[in-house]
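Q: what does this look like with uridine-diphosphate-N-acetylglucosamine bound?
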Amino acid sequence: MKILSVVGARPQFVKLSPIAAALSAAGHEHVIVHTGQHYDAALSDVFFADLGIPRPDVNLHVGSGSHAEQTGAMMPGLERAMLEARPDWVLVYGDTNSTIAGTLAAVKIHQPVAHLEAGLRSFNRTMPEEHNRVMTDHAADLLLAPTEVAVAHLTREGLADRTVLVGDVMTDVLFRTRDRNLADGVVAPLPDGVATGDYLVATIHRAENTDDPARLAAIVTALAGLPRPVLLLVHPRLRASAAQAGVELASGAIRVLDPTPYPALVALVAGSAGVVTDSGGLQKEAFLLRVPCTTLRRETEWVETVELGWNVLDGELTDVAGHAMRPTPPATDAAPYGQGDAATRAVEALAGALR
Ligand code: UD1
């Protein structure tokens, strides 16, 4: 079997890692196309190096731009790469502009498409990601769903016959990285004066939180006022928006850090007292490492983390301090994201659907 993966943004490199390993272990051919949506080394190259992902066969270097510019710029190069490779499947990941560009380029040339992380919904139609994932699910031929909830969404939308529940591939990488960190003695890169177990990890990068100056200022004020050090891992989008809005990030409890490589991120979260974020991946990583999470959004795609008590949504910023300082919830052995074997199951589903 020959697979062509389309990736472009940081979380897609994380998801690609276990898929590339599972394809290689099963002896399948794999072509990796990087759109170039993320190009800073800290958002791209370090993930390939740290997570043992083969170098992309093609990099389209599209870079940043408006949604239309970026998505449109990707499509001709993706189409060329697909026509050249003629894979059995084009595999697209998650919900970014690279996902929808890969899907649109593929279906127009009758290239079968599989969507990894299918069926997630926020039901918030102001999020670009919601449109990317809904349109991708309806165009794709095989929907690889991470959770029962995702399967239920796809079923309601009439897509059950294309859906396979495989589990969450980010869980595969997280467990592997946690175990490797322990074996290799990787420790969290803590700034001076910050002690293990006594800090919060924060990330903010969603357009809905960064692009409105008043909202951004309110979030930064809430983080700055927390009674524990807040290690804020600053995505370039946040850095640019804060500079433009005249919002000082390094204030109060906030310690500004650059985006970290994945093993360091896992070590930071594992050693923290809690996470405050708007990232989907981090909500889940906090849950899997059993660290309480506060999500600065009004809704989440990963509803299991909320239902199990490990994640609280505070999109209105009503009590960020109260939520972030709450005690650890009761222990649970629930595993809504699978056992860490989702990539193997995804590869089996891809091969099975060809037969
Ligand atoms: C994208 C995804 C989002 C995902 C996130 C992960 C879309 C619509 N959004 O958001 O779903 O959660 O990636 O990080 O696809 N920039 C740099 N260097 C880079 C990349 C971006 O400086 O390597 C800056 C540029 O100012 C750019 C801005 O970040 O305009 C936004 O980048 P973009 O790729 O458009 O979206 P993200 O916010 O990263």
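The chain has a mean pLDDT of 97. DSSP finds 15 helices and 13 strands in the chain.
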